[in-house]
Amino acid sequence: MNTVIRAEGLSFVYGWEKDREHPVSEKVLDQVDLAIEEGQSIVILGENGSGKSTLARCLNALLCPTGGRVLVRGMDTAEEQNLYAIRSTVGIVFQNPDNQIVSSIVEEDVAFGPENLGIPTEEIRLRVDRALKDVGLYEMRGRSTYQLSGGQKQRIAIAGVLAMRPACMIFDESTAMLDPRGRKDVLNIMEQLRAEGMTTILITHFMEEAVRADRVLIMKKGKIIADEPPEKIFSREELVREAGLELPPAIRIRNLLRRNGVPVPDRILGMEALADWLCARKKDAGGGSHED
Fold it and tell me: Same domain, yes or no, for 27 and 40?
């Protein structure tokens, strides 16, 4: 697999640039080593202040490391001539949809990024239409952005990034301010992008959003303290608790069932999978042994 992003000894201190002689002593990121391969789905977890969002901004060159380096397809984020190419390669969608809207018309907002990249007009038209279809808002392309719901605005923000054709997308708490329906819409788009082979990085505090990832990273005090598939991460309950986190709801129920003699298998991580397994087990009851 090809490496899209590599962090080597990445450190970051807010205030360093302003006062290099007397920098703040506490590092927000502290010697982070990380490699993200093409097509992987990554979830980053951690309590507030653990460094998640700062890491996201370093990965697409919105912030420049104060120690170590970040390479995006071999391009160093500290070199100014690389910034355009890096931000075209690694797109980012933030938490608040209202802060990401730059135009009053939907299709104009989605076109903003490609226009800044100098893409020809005909190509921009094709990209905007495709991106709006990908997020399910093509029929609303001429509508005012002020008429959209929070979830629709977030989907427009995603379309704006998609129109720049990135190799990787970072979702930095992108579902945090949405209602359940809006969250589901954004997560469905992420699943679609993942199925199409795009590299995705989700930063979230909703633990249930982590169970479908290829890798789950847990951060604490600026360090990555765990980097494993979700089934391994969530089998280490003590580690999760020490990081200030809770287990996903389905895994808490799974563990409770196990303590009461129900042999729920390790692969069951989400609520739908748990419900399906319990229904299948109920149907099989009395009909011989049940295969886990």
Answer: yes
Q: How many domains does the chain have?
A: 2
**Of residues 292 and 170, more confidently modeled:** 170
133-141 long-range contacts (CB < 8 A, ≥24 apart) are 134/159, 134/162, 134/189, 134/192, 135/159, 135/162, 135/189, 136/185, 137/106, 140/106, 141/106, 141/107, 141/110
**What average pLDDT does range 219-232 have in this prediction?**
95
Is 99 a domain residue? no
Nearest-5° angle of CA 115, CA 118, CA 119?
A: 80
Q: What is the pLDDT of residues 44-65, one digit of tens each?
A: 999 999 999 999 999 999 999 9
Note whether residue 36 is domain-resident. yes
Q: Give pLDDT, residue 289.
A: 47
Q: What is the pLDDT of residues 190-221, one digit of tens each?
A: 999 999 999 999 999 999 999 989 999 999 99
